[in-house]
Amino acid sequence: MQCKEREFGRLTDGRSVRLFSFECSDGMQLEITNYGGIITSVRLSDKNGIFDELCCGFPDLSNYLKPHPYFGALVGRYAGRIGGGRLPVGDEVYQLQLHDRHCHLHGVNTGFHTRLWSALLESDDTKAVLKLTYMSPHLEENYPGNLNVTATYTIFDNNRIDLCFEAETDRPTHLNLTNHAYFNLNGFRSSVGDHWLKVDADQVVELNEAMLPTGMLKPVKGSIFDFSELILLSSRLVPQTHELDHCFVLNQSRKDTPAVELFHNETGRSLKVYTDQPGVQVYSGNFLDGSLTGNDSKTYHKHGAICFETQHFADSPNQPSFPSTLLQPGQAFRASTTYLFEVRS
Ligand code: BGC
After folding, report:
1. 56, 103, 106, 283: which to mutate for ligand 1, most atoms within 8 A of CB?
2. DSSP three-state, residue 258
3. Which end of the chain is more exposed for a tag (fewer CB within 10 A), N or C?
4. What total number of domains does the chain contain?
């Protein structure tokens, strides 16, 4: 494992932002910055030896300092929508900033993706460990509790990235963390319609017109959300007619099986995602509109990439039947996800 560190740029207050680069012996090249804990680049050869960028990202820090669609970022304190921005904790209701008239989403423009995290890099022959820490003060974004968060990326030589979140609070609060990376296994030459998808979920979270959970879980069997086998997305008319922006309820019987598998036949590249979280928000880049150009001068078009945001369900603080996102003082928060890239010949 080869690792390098350099300056990515400076914040307006003069603080240096670092960029960490990793090269695995199996060929993956990865870049992560401590600004927002963002994965800025994932590069890998295909079965014919063509080396491509697979992840939406920018070559310059300046693009990340403006609002962007959470490319590669650590999202918090709450990934996903919270209805009316209403956060009930005990007898209090904390009003969060609104993303639109219906909800708070992803910390809006001042969430964890905009924070400079302290970074510590350690590596040995086979792996590298990048430990990012951030102290989110009580009432930051109006969430209660001083919250100490650690996000540890461990990179292995077999093109595997583990992301483990740990956190503790001094007051009851809600917490739901994820990484919001967007992937295209064909190096952005086509939309995600020519990718195959499998999701280990028998149910999906039912949404209302405002894209908020109704509180009900719907069986996927026989519906367009049934990805229990690898399905070519275009054969489900995704993205031509249907868009994915849904939380799949992961089957809990799963042990070492992936929560999600994404495959691209022409390049042979695949991505497997493993997690201990109850859900995964699958989002088919519906709001990408061709206005952003990133690494290797790739332009990010509608449905040009897909996200797998492993997390709790949206609006859990207001949905008593959902698994709880409440974190109590003295309780250790832990959430982990693995991304494994493979190439089939
Ligand atoms: C949400 C989408 C949103 C996207 C980018 C996803 O997690 O579900 O509705 O557009 O993030 O913010």
Report:
1. 283
2. coil
3. C
4. 1
Name the one residue in this structure whose structure tokens are 């460990």.
129
Residue 180 is a catalytic residue: yes
Model confidence band, residue 238 (pLDDT cutoffs 50, 70, 90): low
**What values do phi and psi take at 172, rounded to 5?**
-55, 140
- Please report, to the nearest 10 degrees, the dihedral formed by the alpha carbons of residues 294, 176, 227, 73 taken in order: 10
309 belongs to the catalytic site: yes
7: left (phi > 0), else alpha (psi -120 to 50), else beta?
beta
Tokens for 250, please give them: 């992961």
Q: Please write the tens of the pLDDT for every residue from 86-98.
A: 999 999 999 999 9
What are the structure tokens assigned to 63, written together? 């693009």
Q: Could you report the per-residue pLDDT of 265-274, keeping only the tens digit for each?
A: 999 999 999 9
183 DSSP β-pair partners: 55, 306
Give the CATH number for residue 325.
2.70.98.10
Position 242 scores a pLDDT of 79
